[in-house]
Amino acid sequence: MKKNILYAQSGGVTPVINATACGVIETARANSDRIGKVYAGKDGIIGILREDLIDTSKERKANITALRHTPGGAFGSCRYKLKSIGESKREYERLIAVLKAHNIGYFFYNGGGDSADTAYKVSQIGKNMGFPVQCIGVPKTIDNDLPVTDNSPGFGSVAKYVAVSIMEASLDVQSMASSSTKVFILEVMGRHAGWIAAAGGLAAREEGDPPHVILFPEVPFRQREFVKKVKHAVENYGYCSVVVSEGVRNSRGQFLAEAGLRDAFGHAQLGGVAPVVAQIVQSKLGYKYHWAVSDYLQRSARHVASKTDVDQAYAIGEAAVKFALEGKSGVMPVIKRVSNSPYRWKIGEASLGRVANREKKMPKSYISTDGFGITPAARRYLEPLIRGEDYPPYDRNGLPKYVRLHNVLLKKKLPEFEV
Fold first, then answer.
1. Does 52 qualify as catalytic in the annotation?
2. Residue 201 is assigned to a structural domain of this protein
3. DSSP category for residue 393
4. Residue 258's CATH number
């Protein structure tokens, strides 16, 4: 009997995670002589534990194809981390029971470092419980902090959004600076790694171009130097644009925006660093300011996605299926950069053990010596990732035509399970 695929999305979604899902489903359908159906966990691993499985074979081909240009997580995602096998044995046993009940031979978990860890653990416990399942980690994260892979699917589109946003907002600020706002602060995601903040630096092509200041998690915040930098920009260019990563810390290692809470993965819940930085500007310099938080906008802006990112996200999903058909397990497809000029890439392979629970931070060589900007090396790395446009189709009323799947659930075969 042909084995089925179980695919699930995990953690914060990206502008292109559905393109990866599209790659998985279309490739599986093209290999229907060897693969059964593709099921998807409703709301990620939580749905799998509850046996809420979506039968993607009930979706029309056109709807699956439309996933390539639709943002969000089409099947639902979640922030739920399985602990060690010793601590969460009940959940792992349930997971294996669900896989057995629905003839799952391939488990694809589309997420970041924590998700790679889960996929790795499932591959191990499946062997131990006599039900080996081929587990493939499928990378995604806007933070670009996954190791081994050159870049993470999702990052390129967010990088493009941030660079475009700071460029456009700065033109607005510059227009009004003589009599109104002089400082604009854009807060972007990035708890421990400053890749997204660095992407804002792509907007600066000539001396005096915004952003004039970038604040990275990798560089301890130095208030005196920051204030001097802002003042210099205002006095020389008439205004100052700042990009700040949510994970900026002070010299003691404390988050400037620490809210004292933790999310489901155990990560610090940050309360907003832009207003903290804005208050420093106001109290020390007296400049009128505005601040904005890109937040969900940056990771859902499919209308300004990078074509490079979309192509890579789809290719990653396609490769996951091919890896499974080749008998591989405990691995993840990754992006390998072949050359910068011209930019070329290919799909490689990495063990999940090398990816799980590890973070790739910005290299020192990518941060300027004063700590407030990016270097030419960073620009050479970043620029290819935002190249190309992949606009979604638009309807007659001027809005993008995004798809909403029917998400028909399979009939349950097991007793209810409390998560």
1. no
2. yes
3. P
4. 3.40.50.460
Residues in the chain: 419
CA-based nearest residue to 137, from 98, 171, 111: 111
pTM exceeds cut of 0.85:
yes
Domain residue limits at 206: 155-302
Domain contains 30: no
Amino acid at 398: G
Closest C-alpha to 109, from 44, 56, 153, 64: 44
CB distance 41 to 6 below 8 Å: yes
Q: Report if residue 260 sits inside a domain.
A: yes
Whether 84 maps to a domain, the answer reads no
Of the residues 43, 143, 145, 390, only one is catalytic, namely 143
User: Which pLDDT tens digit goes with each residue over 326-376?
Assistant: 999 999 999 999 999 999 999 999 999 899 888 999 999 999 999 999 999
Contact, 230 vs 242, CB < 8 A?
yes
Domain count, the chain: 1
Q: How far apart are CA 93 and CA 279, in angstroms?
A: 51
Q: Give CA–CA dist 95/135, Å, rounded.
A: 13
Distance from chain centroid for Cα 126: 28
Asked if 165 and 241 count as a contact pair (C-beta separation under 8 A), the reply is no
